[in-house]
Amino acid sequence: MYRSHTCGELRDSHVNEEVTLSGWVHKTRDKGFVVWIDLRDRYGITQLVFDGERSDADMLEKARSLSREYVIQVKGKVIERASKNPNMPTGNVEILVTELQVLNEALLPPFTIEDQTDGGDDLRMKYRYLDIRRNPVKNNLIFRSQVTMEVRKYLAGQGFIEVETPYLIKSTPEGARDFVVPSRMNEGQFYALPQSPQTFKQLLMVGGLDKYFQIVKCFRDEDLRADRQPEFTQIDCEMAFAEQEDVLQAFEGLIKHLLKNIHQVETGPFPRLTYDEALRRYGSDKPDIRFGMEFGELNKIAQHKDFKVFNSAELVVGIAVPGAASYSRKEIDALIDWVRRPQVGAKGMVYVKCNEDGSFKSSVDKFYTAEDLEQWAAATGAKAGDLICVLSGEVNATRSQLSALRMEMAERLGLRKPDVFAPLWVLDFPLLELDEETGRYHAMHHPFTSPKPGQLELLDTAPGEVRANAYDLVLNGNEIGGGSIRIHDKETQATMFKHLGFTPEEARAQFGFLMDAFQYGAPPHGGIAFGLDRLVAILGGQETIRDFIAFPKNNSGRDVMIDAPASIDEAQLKELNLKLDL
Amino acid sequence: MYRSHTCGELRDSHVNEEVTLSGWVHKTRDKGFVVWIDLRDRYGITQLVFDGERSDADMLEKARSLSREYVIQVKGKVIERASKNPNMPTGNVEILVTELQVLNEALLPPFTIEDQTDGGDDLRMKYRYLDIRRNPVKNNLIFRSQVTMEVRKYLAGQGFIEVETPYLIKSTPEGARDFVVPSRMNEGQFYALPQSPQTFKQLLMVGGLDKYFQIVKCFRDEDLRADRQPEFTQIDCEMAFAEQEDVLQAFEGLIKHLLKNIHQVETGPFPRLTYDEALRRYGSDKPDIRFGMEFGELNKIAQHKDFKVFNSAELVVGIAVPGAASYSRKEIDALIDWVRRPQVGAKGMVYVKCNEDGSFKSSVDKFYTAEDLEQWAAATGAKAGDLICVLSGEVNATRSQLSALRMEMAERLGLRKPDVFAPLWVLDFPLLELDEETGRYHAMHHPFTSPKPGQLELLDTAPGEVRANAYDLVLNGNEIGGGSIRIHDKETQATMFKHLGFTPEEARAQFGFLMDAFQYGAPPHGGIAFGLDRLVAILGGQETIRDFIAFPKNNSGRDVMIDAPASIDEAQLKELNLKLDL
Question: Which of A201, A471, B438, B473 could be bridged to B481 by S-S, CB 3.0 to 4.6 A?
Fold first, then answer.
């Protein structure tokens, strides 16, 4: 038996017990006549004590020789500490060691196993197994495990069945960015790794398993933006005989369950915004509503004066930044520079200081009267002490620029509180999205999403106008889930494929099995998928997903710890009937 | 709202309620003046009734036009049935339909959706989404979901953390049979799909997460024997600061939890056999101990008489088949033919009938006296009425032949009861296994398994004798889990690699990261992995795994439903810097 207790377990009540502990040497303090060692394991730290009076001389010497991260086992008696440490759960006691065994030695780690010192990203990734010993990473992984368990508890409780769908599926040329897997037994043929189990979960609905879920790895071979991974985890869900409202209720329930059981936060019904409304009020289809700063459209009140920039703009829109009227000229100039950065892309910014005395000071004072500006303040909800920031130009671009500014100001003002959770539904997404480069429409969610009733006809005349039975669940400014009510009849699906530019042959080759299935009695169905990595990160009060993944890949899709991907040998290639073509 | 209740829900207590149901038309009975429809969903079947008196004429006509597997929605009133069906949970009631809507039409399915008619394997696999509508398959999938939930509940309750390890890992040439995945971003390089998360779970132990589990897909590109799948699911587990006894206790607890919570079966401590003992007593390292028929070794009592076959044999061993003394000459001849089939491979079989009157009749009466045969009966535990079957020859082959016969007889005698569960541990496996073809030893479990204390030295002199800290959990004659205490120091691991024929360079290239990790304070650790597909099948009282997998592949590794694997187009190959070489 390696241990009778963990290193996080011992309290006053254990005093005088003989215990056995195992763990890592976290820290050694050698005061000559006495040596203290902090022994660490997953559960905490317990102080060991050796001294010249009570300890065997050899053992004291051995204790002195231990370096950081040695793995040791000790036996000893729990005693009360002379000077207690109220900051540690085990801080009232220490172990007077009577036996000490080194279980394994350790080289000096390339970085210290402390909460704050991590040695930088490169070292952390190369020595991820050491990084995981650090509380911030360890606790994230434990947190993830708890969240997924709660997800499963809730969904199982609601009658959802977890079904494993295959990982070796069919490559779909349209689905580009598939990772493919050559088959040895089927010469010259390839499997693909799923980008999502979409078609399989729909087939399960056709198969009558009316409430499905799966926590499942998905794969996408795309150029990695920061904070994307080639393999990622989804909570994938589907329901049959379900309308949009059924899906929203079921999964609003899931998020409520998580907030309640993970954070003891009770949440009322989630706000719902249409896609159009979200863009109008927040400039984003994933608005962070933990704070206000809603958009005020100023076209009617700011146009048709003498300010040409606004008169020629498709949209004039502003937000009121709380308390920022006190910004200096220099600070405001910096803000203007900020919105003009290429990443944001605004041409400039008009501002209005709403002074505490009720007066206004703006960058456009020569075009607008105080009465005009009072209207601006009303439209943006500005109060005395606020700074109104106004952008103008083409609708979509301007909204997106002002949304970026809104998020930036919220960040600066500390309004994006990690322990506040503000979920909402965004509904009625467009069915199709115009690809500016190719001029072709493609499915905004995916080709299986159903249009709103009666809008199928619009596909020919105004494809961009068609709205879908599609919804996103947004939490703290992040899309954590998205889904739709699916098409469930062959004809509509064929029409969709046609409008997405598939020839009937292409549609047949790629999705024939699904269209066949639709002929044998497909029930109405719909679902949703959550990005687990991000959901867990946000629930954990963090913005980046990487430290909620045990062994993440870097931005080139490499695992630097195991050094993958790597070359494979000729024989293996030959068995797969492949040749490199570099 | 598509339904107020499911089709398995309505009882007497619902009589007179107005309800809405949705589902599939399971069966229609048209008696002219009255039409009954069985409406089916995941939860059961509810009878709908339409008649000339109470139903609208148009609706009656519409009801008549419905074919099997149409998806419909009905509204109506729950009424008491005139003739109740006690075999159906909903058999006391029916729905007098007032509204009927066809949600989707259906072609006539290629096989009937009934428990017994399945259309044969090929059709079932091609139309798996229809096959899943059948109770036997549907119930298996639901059962699997329940079992995995119980696995997670138990392990989470024991403090195990579920950690997801990567799917895109490094290809190891030694690990042959890796599926590889070409990387687009890393030209000419490949990931591999994991055959198991073995090294990652060991790294998690180095990382201090001392109780890990994961229910995870694993991949092996091997020629498929019947009932193997290229992708399969494991319950993968590892513990640090754990001795073999700790691992056995933890996972004996898991199986007990499953038997109790799934089948309400309480189990005492699991029997434990060493590998050697299992072979000696049952001729198998995964004995089915639901029944007796233990091996009786007869060398001492049957050799050195005049029967040359036995005298020249390394092993003479028999079993007593209960009640089979009544076999006719013809039946016994058939049994002898059975053991001589190439799949079993015995040269012949000696038998002894233990007659009810206490006399014996054997095929070797001229060599052995009744007193001799009485000794045989004692050694095999044969009672009056039993048939002793004796095989002889080389030890391993003979044991395996007699084991096959033992299983066959148990099958014929109905002793392999699917609702009886007899788990046991098999311990002390050999560390190495001789590959007869190459004459090389390879790891019986895997190269990370630790030898028994003090046996490392034997590796040079008698490698086949070295026993490992390795164990299997066996249930009803199937290995459902296997594991070991691992090597946790770099030197022992290097010695193992050397003995397995790795050069230091090969070992470094493939497992360098693990050996590096072992230098930074690796704790003692060990674990186990269960084959979930098989575990679920056996708990479900079945022998084949295929119907516990939603979308299995056939023996050529093909998914015939989606027709994968398949060719990919030239452009995609080019992006991956690959050429076919057929």
Answer: B473
